[in-house]
Amino acid sequence: MKISFAKPAVPDSGALAILVAQEAEPTALLKELDEKTGGALSRARKGSRFEGKAGQTLALVAPGGTELDRLVLVGVGPAKDLDVKALQDAGGTAYAVLADDKQACIAVDAIEAGDAAAQVAFGAMLRSYRFDKYRTTEKKDDKPRLSKLTVATDGSGAAKKAWPELEAVAEGVFLTRNLVSEPANILYPESFAQEAEKLAELGLKVTVLGEKDMKKLGMGSLLSVGQGSARESKMVVMEWNGAEGKKDAPVAFVGKGVCFDSGGISLKPAAGMEDMKWDMGGAGVVTGLMKALAGRKAKVNAVGLIGLVENMPSGTATRPGDVVTSADGQTIEVINTDAEGRLVLADVLWYAQKEHKPKAIVDLATLTGAIIIGLGTDHAGLFSNDDALAEKIFAAGQASGEKVWRMPMGDAYDKQLKSEIADMKNTGGREAGSITAAQFLKRFVKDGTPWAHIDIAGMTWSKKDAPTVPKGGTAFGVRLLDRMVRDSFEG
Fold first, then answer.
1. N or C: which terminus of the chain carries fewer CB neighbours within 10 A?
2. Are 383 and 348 in contact (CB under 8 A)?
3. What does the DSSP assignment read for 446-479?
């Protein structure tokens, strides 16, 4: 969808959506439209329950006195509560009611700042996403018609200036949603790596390691997960050097990329197993984030690392009870082959520290079903060995609307990983499953390295629409970490 910005005015045709704050006096544009429609607008408001609350809409079809096809009021809530998320939600809500119009405009004359209007446009763009690649019989009339959207604001100049960076982030979000939505017969380690390699066009340095490379590095933990699959495992490293000091230590982002998770020999139940195509959600977020950072030319040095495997049962698959050795020499007794994501991340975390010596590491993974039981689908789980880094991520979550909640860690949980025959087990039992998974990862982080783990198992896929997130792949984490980089790491 093409988005442009213009001064507020009543369009000559098409549909017009106007943002309305709760308990606010009518704006000049609302007064003009009410006059043109002979008071129809004010009568409609009096005869409805529309109060300008966030998410409320009120539509007038072919309002008299104008050439408009439709006039839609969109509530944004109290003006004093208009933060970034509220603005984006308003844009997404407006898009949802305008999607079937041929041409449309969103008027934000109730909001003075042009960068705020850009956030409204950003929300509309995020909501416009659809994954239609495999739809061959859908009727043309079933698809949205809106391809061009104008956002009308007194601050059109400022909005145009702010827009390119937001558009770059949206493109990163869309890449992640595309990756998460792809079926596993299309997106597997090799094809995922090929998609990541395309980011070199934006100035990223992209390196792909195959199984021979990883064997030389001793990555027995990661390789054990993919050894039952006919697909070769891969690791991809994406580097962006945007800081003034090109040799400054980067911030590292690590993603779990299990392109399909059958559970391995510890086979999952058949019901719902199709959802395991998006067990690569963490790797998808890291890839989309790196595209966003490069696309907006972020003034930061960053490296994204993703471990890509398929977890399949076969005669060569890892068995429960096997012992594998990680790249840093630690031995792991594999109690459950369905606790595989942590085995992948262990070696990628080691590699990130050995090769890049980052100032901080954040990993993302659809790691445990337990986090969904604990936090549902409103917050991702946050675990960290560093209070300052955890606070940066939490603040970015509040600002971006992609919220996290910090969970406890400690020796009592770590002891659950004790093995009778190896340095550790890969599971700590049912109790505190998300925490023991984080404790496992922490064992592969060097002392003194700020690290955070974000469990996005409940956030990667949505079964219902939200204002800026259509149901399906959410790309949760791209906006969160882009905001964290912008606020805490850019020079």
1. C
2. no
3. -TT--EEEEE-TTTSEESS-BTTB-SEE--TTHH
> Given 342, 425, 483, 486, which residue is catalytic?
342
What is the distance between the alpha carbons of residues 67 and 450, in angstroms, rounded to a whole number? 59
Angle at the Cα of 408 from the Cα atoms of 308 and 489, rounded to 5 degrees? 60
pTM confidence score: 0.97
Per-residue pLDDT of the chain (491 residues), as tens digits, is: 999 999 988 898 999 999 999 988 888 899 999 999 999 999 999 999 999 999 999 999 999 999 999 999 999 999 899 999 999 999 999 999 999 999 999 999 767 667 899 999 999 999 999 999 999 887 766 788 999 999 999 999 999 999 999 999 999 999 999 999 999 999 999 999 999 999 999 999 999 999 999 999 999 999 999 999 999 999 999 999 999 998 999 999 999 999 999 999 999 999 999 999 999 999 999 999 999 999 999 999 999 999 999 999 999 999 999 999 999 999 999 999 999 999 999 999 999 999 999 999 999 999 999 999 999 999 999 999 999 999 999 999 999 999 999 999 999 999 999 999 999 999 999 999 999 999 999 999 999 999 999 999 999 999 999 999 999 999 999 999 999 999 999 97
Active site residue 212: no
- Give the integer Cα–Cα distance in Å for 41 and 389: 50
Active-site entry in 53, 268, 297, 442: 268
- The whole-angstrom separation of Cα 282 and Cα 182 is 14
